[in-house]
Amino acid sequence: MDYVHVPVGSCVNLLECVALLRSKKNGLLCIVFQIALADLLLFFIALLELLNSYHQSWRFSSQSCMIYKGTEMLTNTSITYLLICLNFHIVTFWNLYNVELVKNNRNPLTSFNDSSSECLVTRNENRIVNIDYQKRKNDVPVILPVIFLWILCLSISMPTYVLSSTVQVRGKTLCILANNYGAILQSLLLVFSTTLPCFLLIVSMLILIYKLFRTSGKDIDRVLTKQFEEIRNLLIFGIVFTIFYIIISYQRHVLNMFSTVRQFFVSEIYYINFPNVYLTMMHYSGVSFRGLLCYLALPSVREAVRKHIFFCTNKIT
């Protein structure tokens, strides 16, 4: 299989990780940094799968098999949930600036509960100037959601870490997952690693599309012009990123689910073997395209890479 694009994409992700690690991160860049970090781990998983496919046998120890299968589950699940977190972060960001837009576009003649004539004639105007030194909230914290996300992903991948092993099948060593922990627990893992993330991805994408249609051109031409242009670009980025991930990478989760469900009561072990190697190549191509998409679509990522990697101080927009 041709995995040339994987190291190229991993180099892009490595540059982004180093740049974002050295720069001041907001909520959006924090999530992008973790997606790039998970893609770096996925690069090593791709190398092991490449060697396994080339030799048609597992050439490493049983402990390496456990690390390989568990880390594959961890990285794929974490990228999915991080993308969901990214979408809802963009939605929250949109709501934050939408409230600010309503405040700045309030008409002083009609913003009172009384009529405009009463406002002009009978209402005593308070001319005391109150200066608010509080910093205006312009970001959404993501620390607690991200911590919960990683705890959830570790919990989902823990059975794969523990129960993966090597077995001899027809003279070949296979790295497999033992199906000896019951169909109920296995079904729960499939729900939290495949079914629930798919539902959340689609719901978050639909919300992004709804918010994008609500962000009309007349809103951009008003008070918060620059901010709403950035929000609109973030909405488009989230929609494209989600569609790209579902088409390129999420098919692997679906095939994994079908393969597991098909063999629930067949044997005590199962070995997932996808019928089309091109689907596997397409899945790992996401390592390249996700990093490039973040670099091209997010000016803050480009600025961080230029400043901390290429030492260019010119700010780009």
Automatic annotation (TrEMBL):
Keywords: Membrane, Transmembrane, Transmembrane helix. The chain crosses the membrane at residues 28-48, 78-97, 142-163, 183-210, 231-250, 277-298. One of its GO terms (cellular component) is membrane. The keyword Transmembrane applies. Its main location: membrane. It is found in: Membrane. InterPro entries: GPCR_Rhodpsn_7TM (IPR017452). Residues 9-284 form the G-protein coupled receptors family 1 profile domain. This is G-protein coupled receptors family 1 profile domain-containing protein. It comes from Dendroctonus ponderosae (Mountain pine beetle).
